[in-house]
């Protein structure tokens, strides 16, 4: 029996799941279900990525320990996948002991093979992407998300990535390793431009897996996270069963990911594996982004759609079908409630749902619920042969499209070529008219038309099962065929529907949705858009906040002042004042007054420009706690973006004095 191992990315627990995460998970689930139907011993893995600075900060902002925080959000992902009937075989969390031990083993192996050395990293880092941004200068944005990078200066362990440049390029010669082609070309040109060694530990925070024999360091979160693909199936375990599983399933057949994490999967991951002497995954498939309101759906942009809303109103199959049919896999695609409901009605309610209910209802009515015998002479006529030929063609086309991960083409083939053809065929042959006649010829034609329709329905149902598992399982039962899970897709050919099969109870699988479905979903989303657990957006995000200036005291926004010059407590609450910790301070070239600061405000590090250079030497500020107005609109000064304002006493004719605290206060604490 062949095996098939497929993985989703493990999702960060810094925010709740949305339909962007569901998209990858649904695509993998579809592939896994299809592989099982083809008889492969399939293993489908998903899980959550719980370590690193990003999670540590998100937990801090939520007032929880990182472990509490990770437990809560990881449970939400798990619950959602269960509710959606996702068929994963395991769910890995990077905070589990099994994972931690095995990651340390991987680190050891790479080190023992001579690919790890100690050094010092000074450079820029993007916490949101957990990415070292080579060649960037302080204040530069992250090339991936556009947020301002933070300056990191610390002792680290380095991985000799540069030693793998040629081996990686040789690996990419296989056109199937990275798909689609555009992503492969990007990776090739990135690697050709030269690889620098990669820092694979951090020593300035502790939320991670300790480096073996040197627990002052934690392992870089991407090495920790990527390793899930092998730790979950038993790498590094001393148990015989786990070792067997690893031997059986590794290497993975497919890592499916979004396009923004291609570099980690296509460059770092194979290099880590080569360094450890382990086999490489067979393919990495990168899909595009789901857009909502014109930009990438993401927690930081605040434009997410929750999966639960769609499940409540239309069900999981509707979402699965919509995402895989509407978005060309590999490209970006837009989500809208209008388009979702339109697709649902046209393809599911009026398409396969209607085909099933009318075909099966007529078999009930005219043949007492038993699949009729088609007449041989009648079925040889071209009118019926059209459907049979289309069905044969669609079986072949669909198989190719699924193999190429072209879900939308596979579904297009089933719906446009097969289901529409049968719909037309039924209309042209008017079985309801034939059903009123009792002569032999009419009975024989009626039997052939209904057999042909039911057989085409069976084939469409089997082919669509991996995409819309619930509805197709029900149609299969209604066709009297039992449990669809037992059906082997390799055997699918025209004419297998046993004549005389007794139908199951017929009931509609996709009731039509009316216009109110759109409004209901929109309302549900609006109600949910309260305060989220997510990081707040920064300069790159369209709804960018915070701002900056020199050092005047926190000004009261004019709009908040009433006619007596007083403001209400609610007005004051609009100002997001927070305790920040200065991480980096330096003079802005050609300015006497301005300093450029990087300030940790608990949830993120902000670049702020402050006119305090005449009062404070930059080196005296690093490590000092300050008060910052965190929700001013960003402002540019001397070409640099300032994202926040430091609060200071502004003295007439004197130098500004920074607001500070006598007691110790945690970074990120709000002033109110
Ligand atoms: O990157 N459109 O986790 P993450 C399409 N922990 N797919 C989307 C999407 C969107 N708008 N938003 C999210 C991480 N995704 C790391 C991965 S793997 C070893 C570590 C999907 O929570 C897509 O698969 O940011 C994307 O790659 C993934 O979620 C990112 O999830």
Features:
alpha/beta; six-stranded antiparallel beta sheet; binds ligand ME8
Computed Rg: 30 Å
- The span between the termini is 65 Å
What is the helix content? 40-55%
On the 0-100 scale, what is the average pLDDT? 91
Segments where pLDDT lies below 50 for 5+ residues? Answer: 531-562
Count of extended strands: 27
Unique bound compounds: ligand ME8
Strand content: 15-25%
The helix count comes to 22
**SS content category:** alpha/beta
Note the overall shape.
elongated
**Largest sheet report:** 7 strands, parallel
How would you sum up this structure, described in words?
This protein has 672 residues and is an alpha/beta fold. The protein is 41% helix and 17% strand. It contains 22 helices and 27 strands. The strands form seven sheets. Strands 1, 2, 3, 4, 8, 13 and 14 form a seven-stranded parallel β-sheet that branches. Strands 18, 19, 20, 21, 24 and 27 form a six-stranded antiparallel β-sheet that branches. It has a four-stranded antiparallel β-sheet with strand order 6-5-7-9. Strand 25 and strand 26 form a beta hairpin. The longest helix has 31 residues. It is elongated and about 110 Å long. About 5% of the residues have low confidence. Bound molecules: ligand ME8.
């Amino acid at each position: 029996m062949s095996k098939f191992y497929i993985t989703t990315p493990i999702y960060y627990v810094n925010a709740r799941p949305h339909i962007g995460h569901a998209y990858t998970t649904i695509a993998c689930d579809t592939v896994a279900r299809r592989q099982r139907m083809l008889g492969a011993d399939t293993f489908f893995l998903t899980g959550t990525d719980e370590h690193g600075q990003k999670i540590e900060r998100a937990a801090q902002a939520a007032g929880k320990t990182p472990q509490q925080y990770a437990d809560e959000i990881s449970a939400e992902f798990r619950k959602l996948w269960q509710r959606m009937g996702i068929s994963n075989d395991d769910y890995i969390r990077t905070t589990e002991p099994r994972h931690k031990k095995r990651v340390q083993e991987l680190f050891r192996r790479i080190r023992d093979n001579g690919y790890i050395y100690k050094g010092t990293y000074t450079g820029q880092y993007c916490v949101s992407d957990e990415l070292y941004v080579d060649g960037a200068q302080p204040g530069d944005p992250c090339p991936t998300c556009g947020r301002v990078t933070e300056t990191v200066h610390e002792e680290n362990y380095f991985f000799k990535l540069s030693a793998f440049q040629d081996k990686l390029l040789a690996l990419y010669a296989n056109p199937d390793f990275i798909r689609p082609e555009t992503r492969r070309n990007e990776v090739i040109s990135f690697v050709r431009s030269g690889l620098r060694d990669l820092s694979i530990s951090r020593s300035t925070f502790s939320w991670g897996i300790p480096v073996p024999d040197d627990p002052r360091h934690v392992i870089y979160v991407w090495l920790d996270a990527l390793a899930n693909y092998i730790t979950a199936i038993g790498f590094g375990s001393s148990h015989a069963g786990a070792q067997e599983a690893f031997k059986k399933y590794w290497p993975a057949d497919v890592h499916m990911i979004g396009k923004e994490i291609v570099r980690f999967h296509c460059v770092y991951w194979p290099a880590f594996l080569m360094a450890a002497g382990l086999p490489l995954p067979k393919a990495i498939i990168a899909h595009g982004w789901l857009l909502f309101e014109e930009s990438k759906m993401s927690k930081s942009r605040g434009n997410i759609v929750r999966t639960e809303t769609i499940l409540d109103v239309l069900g999981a199959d509707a979402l699965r079908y919509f995402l895989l049919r509407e978005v060309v896999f590999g490209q970006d695609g837009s989500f809208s409630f209008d388009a979702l409901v339109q697709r649902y009605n046209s393809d599911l309610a009026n398409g396969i749902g209607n085909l099933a209910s009318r075909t099966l209802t007529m078999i009930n009515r005219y043949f007492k619920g038993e699949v009729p015998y088609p007449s041989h002479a009648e079925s040889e006529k071209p009118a019926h042969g059209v459907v049979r030929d289309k069905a044969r063609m669609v079986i072949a086309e669909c198989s190719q499209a699924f193999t190429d991960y072209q879900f939308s083409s596979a579904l297009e083939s089933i719906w446009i070529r097969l289901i529409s053809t049968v719909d037309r065929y039924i209309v042209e042959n008017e079985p309801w008219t034939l059903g009123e006649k009792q002569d032999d010829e009419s009975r024989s034609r009626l039997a052939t038309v209904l057999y042909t329709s039911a057989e085409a329905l069976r084939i469409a149902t089997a082919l669509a099962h991996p995409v819309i598992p619930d509805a197709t399982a029900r149609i299969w039962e209604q066709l009297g065929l039992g449990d669809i899970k037992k059906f082997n897709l390799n055997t699918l050919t025209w004419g297998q529907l046993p004549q005389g099969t007794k139908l199951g109870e017929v009931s509609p699988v996709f009731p039509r949705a009316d216009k109110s479905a759109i409004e209901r979903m929109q309302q549900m989303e609006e109600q949910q858009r309260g305060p989220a657990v997510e990081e707040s957006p920064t300069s790159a995000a369209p709804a960018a906040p915070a701002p900056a200036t020199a050092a005047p005291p926190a000004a009261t926004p004019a709009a908040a002042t009433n006619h007596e010059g007083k403001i209400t407590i609610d007005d004051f609450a609009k100002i997001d004042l927070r305790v920040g910790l200065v991480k980096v301070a330096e003079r802005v070239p050609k300015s006497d007054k301005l300093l450029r600061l990087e300030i940790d405000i608990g949830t993120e590090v902000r670049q702020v420009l402050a006119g305090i250079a005449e009062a404070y030497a930059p080196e005296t500020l690093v490590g000092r706690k300050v008060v910052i107005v965190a929700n001013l609109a960003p402002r540019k000064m001397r070409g640099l973006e300032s994202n926040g304002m430091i609060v200071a006493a502004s003295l007439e004719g004197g130098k500004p004095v920074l607001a500070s605290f006598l007691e110790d206060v945690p970074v990120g604490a709000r002033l109110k």
